[in-house]
Specification:
Pfam families: CoA_binding_3 (PF13727), Polysacc_synt_2 (PF02719)
CATH architecture of the largest domain: 3-Layer(aba) Sandwich
Helix content: 40-55%
CATH class of the largest domain: Alpha Beta
Shape: elongated
Number of strands: 22
Largest sheet: 9 strands, mixed
CATH superfamily of the largest domain: NAD(P)-binding Rossmann-like Domain
Keywords: Membrane, Transmembrane, Transmembrane helix
Protein name: FlaA1/EpsC-like NDP-sugar epimerase
Family: Belongs to the polysaccharide synthase family.
Number of domains: 3
Low-confidence stretches: 240-258, 619-625
Structural class: alpha/beta
Number of helices: 21
């Protein structure tokens, strides 16, 4: 019967609750009369009060509807809902008094005085009984996880109220370290100690503990989580309901740190009309489309309304992932999306892809960019970063592509590593190609470190913080220029719009950021503290481990000081030394020979002789630049 009532539609449930309350009116009157049978004959009292049994319920019905007595959800019936019941009881007493006086009924005044309180007791009793039946039914439900709520404060009480209507978890007990609360009952549930909780977990009466203590500090919360996890149960830390409503609640113990909050400056607005005009209705090819920069370029380009976007990547998984993400966006904006597997080192493949897609603009984001890996694999680093760029650029020139934009790096300026040197040589090769190009305009964009991109310090530091530290720095004085991934992508798009041929564009990124300061800021934004001499009880330690091979203390954006303005005040065009066609041909021939001979020592010697400012950085802790 109870299961049938639970499945009834809500309007039917409301009608049943209203009917019960209406029936309680004559029932209350009858009980009040029964209490006075000792002072007057029963038959005489009942006969005198007979009109009330019919008229009072009729008049009470609209009052109950107005109060909303039947709109209180039975499972959510709590103390504050009793006020409506009290108001309804007062209304019943007033109606009884008015009818008794208006109809001239010979009824003792005590009947009027008793009817209201009796109605209230019956109303609350039936509601409470019904609620308890429902709670017991849900608590006995199979498959619900038995949980303990750690914290019997207001957040715990709110959580209990929610869980009583949950179909996945069944609250068993409160747990609190406050000795005065232990063995007490809060919201109908017993409060136990931590030792009692351990016994409940061992007996399988509790499988999960929910921490409902939003005011507790992060370090204490983490220690408590570790201690409870040793009992052999799951431990979940939950935000307060006020945080959830305000949108500040967190599903994890660590608050996420966004790249924008770490930038240390205002983001540069790179949204200009030139970008929209440069790409609207065009056919764009993006290499390295599955990478951090390439994928963001794809997203930004589609929003500019091109006719077709061709995604090129040598990684099948990366290409599949970005294509699956972009298909709905491309369909929404009416953009044709094409995916092509292939290596930028394969000239025939790049030529065929450009021919079939009738490419107007190439955005070249394919590169090996991780400094230590390229340092250990210099042959492949040069083959991909230099000759992959040159191969694709020559294919673009032969296909009559209008613009070719190379994504470069600040590590190309006076490089101390093979990755930076390979990108500087790619810049020089592209500028040399420009001297023989009648149609295609070649340009380069020099990036600082892109916050949040794969292999950057942000994901590394976040994983180290999540693991409890330590954060590892290569040097206390190391600094870097930083930009957001959206700034990086839009800078490429603007370069495409501003390109006149052979340009090197750089973004004014303000002052460089000290990496130790960045690490400290990340720890603090996460809600933790740095452990050092001034704070020995902090949460996260920062350790210095020494510079890696090829790494230098600071990066630069320009070779020399020759800068020209662009239509955008925050974007500069660099004027730097270029190689002659003969010099460039000689260097490329030498590098090809070294790669063919698989001779990394000879390759390094060629780079040192050819790239301005190239030098090998020391890796000790006392480096000075």
């Amino acid at each position: 019967m109870l299961d049938y009532l639970v499945t009834l539609p809500r309007p039917v449930k409301r009608q049943i609750l209203l009917l019960i309350d209406v029936v309680l009116v004559p029932a209350s009157l009858l009980i009040a009369l029964a209490l006075l049978f000792d002072t007057a004959p029963a038959s005489e009292l009942l006969w005198s009060a007979l009109p009330l049994f019919f008229i009072a319920p009729i008049l009470a019905t609209p009052v109950f509807l107005k109060i909303g007595l039947n709109r209180i959800k039975l499972m959510a019936f709590e103390v504050h809902d009793m006020r409506r019941g009290a108001f309804a009881a007062l209304s019943v007493a007033i109606l009884t008094a008015i009818l008794t006086y208006a109809l001239g009924l010979n009824i003792p005044r005590a009947v009027v005085m008793l009817t209201g309180p009796v109605f209230l007791l019956l109303h609350l009793g039936i509601r409470t009984l019904g609620r308890n039946f429902l709670v017991r039914r849900f608590n006995d439900g199979a498959g619900r996880i038995p949980v303990a709520i750690y914290g019997a404060g207001s957040a715990g009480v709110q959580l209990l109220a929610a869980l009583r209507q949950d179909f996945q978890m069944r609250p068993v007990t409160f747990v609190d370290d406050n000795v005065t609360l232990q063995s007490m009952t809060v919201s109908g549930m017993e409060v136990c100690s931590r030792s009692r909780l351990e016994a409940l977990v061992k007996s399988k009466e509790v499988e999960r503990v929910l921490l409902a203590m939003p005011s507790v500090s992060e370090p204490k919360m983490r220690r408590l989580t570790q201690e409870l996890a040793e009992f052999g149960c799951e431990v979940h830390a939950l935000p307060s309901y006020s945080e959830l409503v305000e949108g500040t609640g967190l599903a994890s113990n660590l608050r996420p740190v966004t790249a924008d909050r770490l930038l240390g400056r205002d983001k540069v607005d790179l949204e200009t009309p030139e970008v929209a005009r440069a790409y609207a209705g065009r056919r764009v090819l993006i290499t390295g489309a599955g990478g951090s920069i390439g994928s963001e370029l794809c997203r930004q380009i589609i929003l500019r309304g091109p006719q077709r976007v061709t995604l090129v990547d040598h990684s099948e998984y990366a290409l599949y992932t970005i294509s699956q993400e972009l298909m709905p966006l491309a369909a929404l904006h009416g953009v044709e999306l094409v995916t092509r597997l292939g290596s930028v080192c394969d000239k025939e493949r790049m030529s065929n892809v450009m021919a079939e897609s009738e490419t107007d603009i190439v955005l070249f984001a394919a590169a090996y960019k991780h400094v230590p890996l390229v340092e250990e694999n210099e042959i492949e680093g040069l083959r991909n970063n230099l000759f992959g760029t040159l191969t694709t650029a020559e294919a673009a020139q032969n296909a009559g592509v209008e613009r070719f934009i190379l994504v470069s790096t600040d590590k190309a300026v006076r490089p101390t590593n093979i990755m930076g040197a390979s990108k500087r040589l790619a810049e020089l090769a592209i500028q040399d190609l420009q001297t023989r190009s009648e149609v295609t305009k070649f340009a380069m964009v020099r990036f600082g470190n892109v916050l949040g991109s794969s292999g950057s310090v942000i994901p590394l530091f976040q994983s180290q913080i999540s693991a409890g530290g330590p954060i590892t720095l290569t040097h206390d004085k190391i600094t870097r220029y930083f930009m957001t991934i959206s700034e990086a992508a839009r800078l490429v798009l603007l370069a495409g719009a501003y390109a006149t041929g052979g340009d090197v564009f750089v973004l004014d990124m303000g002052a460089p950021v000290n990496i130790r300061d960045l690490a400290r800021r990340m720890v603090e934004l996460t809600g933790l503290t740095v452990r050092d001499e001034s704070n020995p009880h902090g949460d996260i330690d920062i350790q210095t481990v020494g510079l890696r091979p090829g790494e230098k203390l600071y990066e630069e954006l320009l070779i020399g000081n020759n800068m020209l303005p662009t239509p955008h005040e925050k974007i500069m065009r660099a004027e730097e030394r270029k190689f002659s066609q003969i010099e460039m041909a000689r260097i490329l021939k030498q590098i090809r020979t070294a790669i063919a001979a698989n001779d990394p020592l000879k390759l390094r010697a060629i780079i040192e002789a050819s790239v301005d400012g190239f030098h090998v950085a020391e890796t000790g802790l006392d480096d000075v630049v």
